[in-house]
């Protein structure tokens, strides 16, 4: 199953450009952060993550990351690889495909997602919409398939060369494409120290369920990290 999804990503790379080696590297990013979470299911969760990205010709971005989370009773391993294509120079519209892996080792639970997405990411506001094609396997049983509508939107109250401050709402991030009712509300703050270094802060409130009778507060998390760009 994993091999098939990786082959799909390599095929998409080939369609983007048959001679990627000749393209100029326009930007490289490296990001690392610590995340602490308390929720009604696993109680306390600590997580360490690393993400890297390479941009070619201001159009193609190849990124990937690894995250390891530990609760009081289990260990979670999450990883992703992503291809993003931005065809327009003056329009912040992009198309991407991700492969996401989520695993709980103690429970022999493994989830594989292929996640196509279309995004409009302007400085002040943006939105991303896609579908999560997810295969889940529990205790070695036959994989179960689901397709889940996914979205994320944000609005920045402040956006300048030093500070970005805004809010967001959605049911996915780089490492997780969750169920439709598993919403997260974000308060995001990014501080630009210089041309290369950036500090990332985020507070997340998690909700389970979408309507008035089923919606319930699930947990909260805090993330802090740094990003280096060159």
Give the gist of this structure.
This protein is mostly beta strands and 230 residues long. It has one helix at residues 2-16, and strands at residues 25-39, 43-56, 60-71, 75-85, 93-104, 109-121, 125-138, 144-159, 163-170, 182-192, 197-208, 216-229.
Mean pLDDT: 87
* Number of β-strand runs: 12
What are the segments in which pLDDT stays under 50 over at least 5 consecutive residues? none
Going by helix content, strand content and strand pairing, the class is: mainly beta
Order the strands across the largest sheet as they lie in space. 1-2-3-4-5-6-7-8-9-10-11-12
Beta-strand portion reads over 45%
Distance between the termini: 36 Å
Oligomer: single chain
Quickly give the CATH architecture: Beta Barrel
For the CA atoms, what is the radius of gyration? 18 Å
According to CATH, the fold-level topology is Porin
- Level-1 CATH class name: Mainly Beta
Order of helices and strands: HEEEEEEEEEEEE
Residue share in helices?
A: under 10%
Number of helices: 1
Globular, elongated, flat, extended or rod-shaped: what is the shape? globular
Number of domains: 1
Describe the structure.
With 230 residues, the protein is mostly beta strands. The chain is built from 1 helix and 12 strands. The chain has one helix at residues 2-16, and strands at residues 25-39, 43-56, 60-71, 75-85, 93-104, 109-121, 125-138, 144-159, 163-170, 182-192, 197-208, 216-229. It has a single domain, classed as Beta Barrel (Porin), CATH 2.40.160. 12% of the residues are buried. The longest helix has 15 residues, at 2-16. The two termini are 36 Å apart. The radius of gyration is 18 Å and the shape is globular. A 12-stranded antiparallel beta barrel has the order 1-2-3-4-5-6-7-8-9-10-11-12.
């Amino acid at each position: 199953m994993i091999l098939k999804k990786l082959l799909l990503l390599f095929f998409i790379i080939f369609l983007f450009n048959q001679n990627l080696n000749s393209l100029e590297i326009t930007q490289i990013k490296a990001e690392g952060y610590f995340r602490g979470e308390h929720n009604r299911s696993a109680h306390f969760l600590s997580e360490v993550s690393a993400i890297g990205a390479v941009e070619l010709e201001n159009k193609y971005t190849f990124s990937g990351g690894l995250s390891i989370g530990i609760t009081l009773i289990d260990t979670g391993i999450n990883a992703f690889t992503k291809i993003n294509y931005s065809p327009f120079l003056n329009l912040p519209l992009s198309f991407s495909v991700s492969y996401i892996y989520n695993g709980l080792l103690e429970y022999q639970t493994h989830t594989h997602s292929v996640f196509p997405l279309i995004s409009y990411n302007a400085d002040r506001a943006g939105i991303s919409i896609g579908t999560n094609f997810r295969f889940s396997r529990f205790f070695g049983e036959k994989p179960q398939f689901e397709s889940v509508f996914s979205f994320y939107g944000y609005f920045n109250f402040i956006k300048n060369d030093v500070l970005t401050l805004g809010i967001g709402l959605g049911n996915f991030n780089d490492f997780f494409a969750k169920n439709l009712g598993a919403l997260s509300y974000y308060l995001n703050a990014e501080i630009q120290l210089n041309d290369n270094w950036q500090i990332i802060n985020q507070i997340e409130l998690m909700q389970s369920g979408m309507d008035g009778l089923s919606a319930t507060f699930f947990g909260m998390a805090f993330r802090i990290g740094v990003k280096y760009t060159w």
